[in-house]
Amino acid sequence: MKYRIFLLLLFCLFLFSCSDNKSKVLKMEDIFKLESAIELKDIDEIPVFTFTEFGFFAMQTHSSRVSKFLNDGTEEKVFGKKGKGPGEFEWGRFLSYSEDIHTLGIYDIPNFRTLYFNDSCEFQKHDSRPISGIPYFKLRKNDIEVFSFSQFPDNNGFWKNNIAVNDSIILSNNEKTDSQIPEKYYQYSYNSGRIIILKPDGTDFALYNYDLENRKLNRIETGSNKHYTVNISSINNVHTIGKYIIIEASNTEDRLEYIFMKQKGKYIGTMEFEEDYKAIYGVYNNHIYVVESDDSEEWIIVHNYILK
């Protein structure tokens, strides 16, 4: 009799663990509240964004045009010019904003330099940092600089993928590829003093938390496709907001899905937007920004949500 009860308990535990790993469908409204929706005008491409306490900056890479928007939708300033001179950039692919010094940084890839602008969008200075490879992202915020980059391949065709905090490389791995750019590289989210690092690997991934105070890297979770959903084809990006870590993934139908986890790695659920051209583009403190457009990018709307 005791043996049967023991087997029954084991069976119930197995069912519970299976149900816990089963994909749970979430909606934005389950966790967030919509605060505003801002339509961007005179935009001919999906811009690169960086989000701030007062709103956001939107940069069009082809024209080197940057717009400063306030939270109420006001386009306060437009600036930027293509070139190599002071305040000019040829391909400003990455940008970020530092609140402690009220400065916007734009990384100009061809010239391997960062240009700095003040709150009035006036050019201040630029600095150069030679990197032997392709930088994927560079962020300066609250005196913390985080960036990931890949060094050019060696004679054996191996790229070295790195992620660094304040010039110190904290993660590095090799990948052999015939392509000019490696497919697997670190992604990260830095929000409210927390750095979460994502290492994608096909349909699997690893998550790390970097402890800034103790300069220590902690592994949070090793995720797998089978744990969360049945149709993920690749892992793309990561966001962190409040107690949540959000993993962006593509499914086999080329649609984006978002895997929600708690900070210690427990799976909560998976969300997919009903609209085809809608995606999470960034976070700031307790705000999360969703960008929506049509297939021709003739109109673009930035939805500003806040944690409930």
Structural summary, described in words:
It is a single chain. With 308 residues, the protein is mainly beta. Helix content is 9%, strand content 56%. The protein has 3 helices and 25 strands. The chain has helices spanning 2-21, 28-31, 225-228; strands spanning 25-26, 32-40, 48-51, 55-60, 65-70, 75-79, 92-98, 103-108, 113-118, 123-128, 133-141, 144-151, 158-165, 168-176, 187-191, 194-201, 204-211, 216-223, 232-241, 244-251, 256-262, 267-271, 278-284, 287-293, 300-307. Strands 1-22-21-20-19 form a 5-stranded mixed beta sheet. The chain has a 4-stranded antiparallel beta sheet with strand order 2-25-24-23. The longest helix has 20 residues, at 2-21. The radius of gyration is 21 Å and the shape is globular. The termini are far apart.
